Amino acid sequence: MRIECPICGSRDRREFYYRGDAIALARPAPEAGDDLWDGYLHLRDNPAGQTRDLWQHESGCGAWLVVTRNTVTHVVQAVELASDVKRAMA
Ligand SMILES: [Zn+2]
Prior knowledge:
The protein is an alpha+beta fold. Helix content is about 20%, strand content about 35%. The protein has a single domain, classed as Folate-binding superfamily (Folate-binding fold, 2-Layer Sandwich). It binds zinc ion.
């Protein structure tokens, strides 16, 4: 799979660090209890189809990216700078 970094261009996905779902996980309060912390730390969805994930171009420019891709076909549909996505949401 290749990812089109908006800064560096097309690169192999092994240059990128996968952080997870781009929808921010709500970090529980320190006193939230074991069940909430267990879910926050260990439980993740594993959807088949389109996802929006947060990746960092770790071996390149270091930019954080929001990658829209299909987990079944591995087709990357869009790559955006996370800073642009955050600014658009503000
Ligand atoms: Zn880059």
